[in-house]
Amino acid sequence: MVMLFLAGCTTPSEKAEQRALRQVAAQYRPHDAKPALPLLTTNAPLSAFLTFALLNHPDVEAAYFDWAAAVARITSAGAPPDPQLTFQLDIQSVVTSLMPGVMFSFPGPGKLRAQAHVAAAESSGKYYAFETRVLAAAFAVKQAYYELYFLTEKIAVNRATLGVLGDVEALARERNAVGQATLQDVLRAQMEQERLRTEIANLEDSRQPLAAQFKAALGLPADAPEPPLPARFETTPLTVAPSNLLAAAYARNPRLKAMAAEVQRAEAALQLAAKAGVPDFSAGLMGDLKTSPVLFRPLASMTLPVWRNKIRALLAEAQAQKSAAQARFTNEQLQMAVELAEKTFMLREADRNLALTQEALLPKARLALEAARAGYLSNQSNFVDLADAWRAVLAAELDAVMARTQRELALAELDLLVLGQPGKQWSGGVLE
Q: Dihedral of the CA atoms 20, 25, 26, 30 (nearest 10)?
């Protein structure tokens, strides 16, 4: 009866992990099945693509089931050993005794609870590994999403520039017809148009590998129908004040949380190793069915942890593992600070470049183009000046697109570093 009672006991950490798993499963895998995925259209918001990827990507799913397996492992780690059925015969010329029995093993005091604590810490680490894969999957979607945006905008800018070149060619033809320009101007305009048409064709062709990257980020296999590509793109706001980014990363980053869980696991393993010198016990009862009345034989045994070198080695190993886990955690904090500084610099740089291009360079380049066009019409400038002017407009427009794309990718990388849920909460398939 004592063994049956012990087998049914659960630790607070086990209950907490099981409760967290149920909360996540209710949204991520309700009734052990994949929930209905959001409908993706060309006008679907970014959140729909993110939810689709997080619910569908096999890498996230594998991390989830690794965590579920680790939660289930807590119960087996803290469960007592299975009882044993025993059977003994005494035989002379005939069977003189027939003794079936049962034997129970009792690990030393605190050992089962210590084993459960180790398994619970491992389960916590698996959860944060799952959360890391969720954020990585979200980043992969955002990366492909904004690279598609950059490609779409670059093609649009080049097509608009091709239209400008068509106007320049028409202008050169008109001036050539009245003897105010040479045929060389017309040929230069045609050469620039052919070069731009080839670049547009190359850009259009590069959409295929980007679309394949976007498809893979959504967790769709190669033989699945092609997903719709977004026709409009959203920007990502910075939800944490720049001065609070490092503190938020230290408090919420799942990589750091996983490292902290590893330290907790090492501490629990050290406590378990400290109990290596505690003996284990066994007790049982046998009954001789050949006697009348039945003769009962109680049995008991105890392990003798006499190998002190072995115990000291177990303690030394556990202490070294704890120290290594603490060092890895500290190193991860250092690396986090460096990465955060790099990403915030990239964000500030992209903001400055975007402001420079949109507020200064692009307006002036357009004014310079109009001036060059007017000068070309009035014979005050030549075709080279006009060509340089529209190239400056093209470069400024492409720089603006690049700066916007770099800003969004920097924000996505900051999300990957900073975002993460302090508790185990899942909302709508997206970790808040």
A: -160
